[in-house]
Design a protein that fits this description.
Blueprint: H1 20-27, H2 29-55, H3 61-75, H4 77-86, H5 91-116, H6 128-151, H7 156-165, H8 169-172, H9 176-181
Helix pairs in contact: 2-4, 2-5, 2-7, 3-5, 4-5, 5-6, 6-7
């Protein structure tokens, strides 16, 4: 996540005046917007994966490869973030960024579905309500990304702002991690 900031160029100003630096930084606002959105989306992805893997008790080849695909997609976020920061006004770039985030969220969802199907790789006593809560949360994310992609036809900036609100899904919808920390017993 910290690599994202390396793509924000430091302005090159020969003999700067007091007004030059603030103006140069202001011109970088699309880069800072891309950084902010990507940082919080990646943070949400990290929290979601942490929550998900708390319940995974075993791994098989399929799970390992799904996780590798997830990490590969995560590792390429700095590239699409840089594109977004440089070409925020280009709808194709905003759609590409959204499609990238959509792919990440769909792999995350597929990994959870795979791991929990018939309690394949999770604790055999996991509360099925926990499974359903995470499935709902992991499906809400791609739906919001699709909405944001659609909004890019009206406004690229509005679309990016919607991408930034996706992490709220993890604040609004119930958290199985928080519930686990509570006192609710598991059903078998």
């Amino acid at each position: 996540m910290t690599i994202l900031v390396l793509e924000i160029p430091v302005p090159e100003i020969e003999h700067p005046t007091a007004q030059d630096i603030p103006r140069a930084l202001l011109r970088l606002w699309p880069m800072f917007l891309g950084y902010f959105v990507s940082f919080i989306v990646l943070g949400m992805s990290w929290v979601a994966q942490h929550e998900q893997f708390h319940f995974v008790k075993r791994a098989d080849q399929a799970l390992l490869w799904m996780t590798m695909l997830f990490l590969m997609l995560i590792a390429t976020v700095p590239f699409t973030t840089t594109l977004l920061g440089r070409y925020l006004d280009q709808q194709a770039v905003v759609v590409l960024y959204g499609a990238h985030l959509l792919a990440i969220s769909l792999v995350h969802h597929a990994t959870w579905r795979y791991a929990t199907r018939n309690r394949r790789l999770v604790d055999p006593h996991i509360d099925l309500e926990d499974v359903k809560i995470h499935l709902r949360r992991s499906l809400a994310t791609p739906v919001i990304y699709l909405i944001a992609i659609g909004l890019s036809f009206m406004s690229t900036v509005l679309s990016v702002v919607v991408y930034a609100f996706v992490p709220l899904v993890y604040g609004v919808l119930p958290s199985i991690y928080a519930k686990r920390e509570g006192s609710r017993p598991r059903k078998s």
